[in-house]
Structures are given as structure tokens and as C-alpha cells.
Amino acid sequence: MSEGCFLWGVLRYPPLWRGRDLDFEPASLRGVMVAADPETGAALLVSQHDGLAQGALLRGLAAEDLQTMAALEGNSLRCARVTVELAQGGQVQATALLPQTALADQGFAAWDLAQWAARYGAQYALVAQAEVEAARLGPLLARAGARLRAAAQVAPVTRRHPAGPQDVACQALRQPYKRFFAVEEADLRFRRFDGSLSPQVTRAGFISCDAVTVLPYDAQRDRVLLVEQFRTGPFLRGDPQPWQLEAIAGRIDAGETPEEAARREALEEAGLTLTALLPVAQYYPSPGILTEFLYSYLALTNLPDHAAGIFGLAEESEDIRGHLISFDQLMALAQSGEIGNGPLLLLAYWLAANRIQLRRACPASSV
Q1: Is 316 considered catalytic here?
Q2: Which residue ranges form the domains of the chain, and what is each CATH number?
């Protein structure tokens, strides 16, 4: 008879099981090792003749509950019975989540729970409190990161209402649509300017995650790099020109800082390795309906003639073309309406306000 569930990777992290009366006991599984995925840092279980996977025996948890939480591992796993060794001696039969197909040891580095927790733990713990789906793990973790950044953000309230915990009362929260993005609908009351609470109203929001935009600028050559790609929003609106000229942009993945995301997206979308990033603004592009929060940067970088090309991740069906254009051309596009998205317009006008100073600070500038 199984005496518990053996946890070997992400699920060993106790905060994921917050609110449950469970007993963790150190244990190990022979013949395998817990390795770090070289691309994502996730925990992998790989075959190793003399391996000893460190983990925990969790008592008081049904196998079906373990399977429900398996989505947090991000892998295709199956429940199996295994023999585990207890730290205090002895062996017991336990249920464990194992890969569908045994992974061979390819010289992977060992996975470290403490290092993983320092980077990802808080986001996983937040996701674990709701319904978890393996197919949506990435977006869920990215949104959890957004919530944590929002909670930690120091928001100025010099003119607007300084909201307190009693100023919004949410009676119900529904999620009628959830895939890569989601829609949430809330029944709530909010504090009115006369001090009273409003009648109950129903409000819906489009749920996404935090994202970055970055405009590369070569101060010596006085030009920028824009990217162009097909966009679903204009297409569904009926816009006959759904290809958009934009700044480099992308979501902030789990465990990333906004600056790390900006550099990653610049490499993926334009083949650029960025160093200096100048913060321009942090903002909600459309707070009446979107949870998305943007971090916008200007990047001072070198943009030679060969910097523009075709980029994008094949696995995400991205087809992104770069354009090298002068500052004057950038402003002409903004004024003509050919640039039709807020983040790039904001960056363009910020550059216009700060361009002379940036060029004077460039040692090789002829200005």
C-alpha cells in the first residue's frame, strides 16, 4: 500500500501546498537524478545508473490531488508506484509523478531547489492557489509575476484618490474565457468620491500580463530600429492594414525582470544585444479594459546598415521585419498616422524631447 506521494521537483516547494495540513519528510529515489532544463531551468527527472534524486515524501495527499498539481511541473507526467528511501532509514512504497518516457542523462547540471525558488518560487506559489492547467502554465506564471510587481510598486497618490483595503468590495469573480489570455468578470462595489460605496456593478477585464517595449536608438547615426509584423487586433477590428510598425515588445516571462525581458526580446525580434536601457515610462495602455502594464525603454545602441533583417521565433510563428529609419522619418510616420500604436508613439515623442541631449552625450556624435 502506498504510504504517501514522493515529490522530486517543483512540487517539493512547501509554499505550493499552503493551507493544507500535510507532512513533509525528506526522501530519495535511486536510479534517477533531478536535472535542470538548460533552456528553462525547470526540473527534469533523468535516468542515471548511480543517481539519487533528493525529494520529499508527502503524507496525507491523495494521488488524484497530486495529479491535479502536476501541471506545475510543466511536463507530461504519469502517476507510478516507486520505492523511496527515507532519510531516517527504511524504504516505503509511494506514488510519484514520472516522465512518460524516461529521459537519458545528457550531462545536465543538477537542479537546485533554493536557486529555483529564489527566481520563481513566489510566482509558482501564487499560481498554485488557483486552478492550474499545464497548457496555460506560462501565461499563468507571467500574470502571477505581474501581480507581484503590482503589489510591490510604490504608486504616487498626490492628486488621485488614495485607495484603501475597504474601497473596493468584490462580491463575485468569474472567468468565462481562459486560454493564452483570459477574460474575468467581477461583481463589485467601489468607493465613490462622496465617500459612499457604489451600487453593485458588473465589470469585465481582458487579462494578460506585464510586457516591455524598447526602441533601439543610434545617437551617432540619429536613427532607430522599428519592427513590423501582422497583428490580430487591427485585423479583427476590420483594419485593411493589419501590419503594424512597432517598437520591439514582448511579455515578461516568469522569473524575469522587465530589463531582462527587454534584452531577450531585442535578441529574438531584431538580433540586437542591448546594454544600456533608459527607462521612459511605466503605464497601463488602456486601464478601462486591460490588465496589461507596460515598461517602456529607449536603448542606446549601435545600428549599422546591416542591423535590419527578418527575425522571430519559428515555434511562435513569428515573422518580424526590421526597419532602420532616421529620426526625421520616425516623426513623419508618427505624424502621418502610419505609426498607429500607443507605445511606439510614446517612445517617439520621448525621443523627440530628449534627442539633442542624448546626441550631445554621444562621444562620436558630430552634433
Answers
A1: yes
A2: 5-100+110-132 (3.10.490.10), 140-152+167-207 (no CATH), 211-360 (3.90.79.10)
